[in-house]
Amino acid sequence: MTAALAALSVLSLSACGALDAIGADGDSESPTHRNDITVGLLLPDRDTARFEKFDRPLVQERVGVLTGEEGKVVYANAEGSAARQSEQFDRLIADGIDVILVAAVDAEAIASDVEKAKEADIPVIAYDRLAQGPIDAYVSHDNELVGEVQGRAIVDALGTDAENSKIVMMNGEPADPNTALFKEGAMSELDDNVDIAETYDTEKWVPAVAKANMEKAIEAVGADDIAAVYAANDGMAGAVIEALDEAGVSDIPPVTGQDADLAAVQRIVAGAQYMTVYKSFLLEAGGAAEMAVARVQGRDIQFDSLTGERVDSPTQKDIPAMLVPVVALTQDNIEDTVIRDGVYDVEDICTAKYREACASIGLTP
Questions:
Q1: How many CB atoms lie within 10 A of CB 107?
Q2: Model pTM?
Q3: Longest C-alpha distance within the chain, in Å?
Q4: DSSP code of 312?
């Protein structure tokens, strides 16, 4: 994180959901486009480490830069509750926010809130997850490609043994539209190549739920007969590996992940987790902030240049979108991904516990 992030001031508001207003005063307002704008940022949970650690501060910093430190971000985390997120959404509308960035807990349930924002003439940009309702734009990744990258990693890891291998699939929260896309992408690689022995959905992406499901899979399939585990994100990957450890599995089979959490990168260094999908938080969060500011300031040309792709939701067609590239992160490219991009320093990854493992793959401070 940059020094600019640490310098941002935090002001606590009394709104339900503990909204935090973040911004700064300045005198760099454009003569044609006001900079004293307020961006609402609604994130879905704290179990997915990236949201609090990266997405939130990166959006805040970029809004500040784009508005000469006059703009502010009003933030709330739903902590996995669609009802709480709806309350937070309603609060932003009542406060007359300029634009809302929302990563929906439940893409379908939030549609009515998006409708209310539309009626109040407040633009809504779906962040990371494609919300239903009349959204103005969407910024995320090619989520089907994310699943393809994960599925291909498993097939490649198993090699010639793939066809006869039993795989456990640990999918995400069914109400998250990304879950279906991840699964569809993964199945395009896994179907006809491996034996899907057990499949589970993971309520609200909670790692404890994934661990309980993995324990069921171990009992149903047999610890030694599980050749690989498709885990949709890193939080679940950690839970899966913990369950395998507790079942006495000494040679952990390939386990996928997503988000490049620090703990996941360390597990990859140590050989416990096979891979994760690295998605540039800087590109996604920065792009979302730029889209939000451009929308409020009426910079249509800039907004259109940022949203060069189109996606469909169940309620809306041809949504302007920005889809950020993804890459499979393994032991071979840690330096070329999260370290190069400044997400982590070598010192962050190679703590005392992982120093020897880091040295064995040529990763040294």
A1: 24
A2: 0.80
A3: 68
A4: E
- E-only strand ranges, 232-295: 276-279
HSE of 6, CA atoms in CB hemisphere, 13 A: 3
**By C-alpha distance, which of 255, 288, 355 is closest to 139?**
288
Q: Which two tokens stand for residue 115?
A: 């409708």
pLDDT, tens only, 201-241: 999 999 999 999 999 999 999 999 999 999 999 999 999 99
Six token digits for residue 228: 């690989």
Spatial distance between the Cα atoms of 229 and 196, rounded to a whole number of angstroms? 10
Task: Determine the Cα–Cα distance for residues 233 and 294; give it in Å rounded to an integer.
Answer: 31
Residue 61 corresponds to which tokens in the numbers above?
């910093």
Give the integer Cα–Cα distance in Å for 83 and 14: 18
Q: What's the token pair of residue 226?
A: 């599980």
Please provide residue 103's backbone torsions phi and psi, each rounded to the nearest 5 degrees: -100, 105
The two three-digit tokens of residue 216, written as one number: 């069921």
How far apart are alpha carbons 253 and 165 in whole angstroms? 11
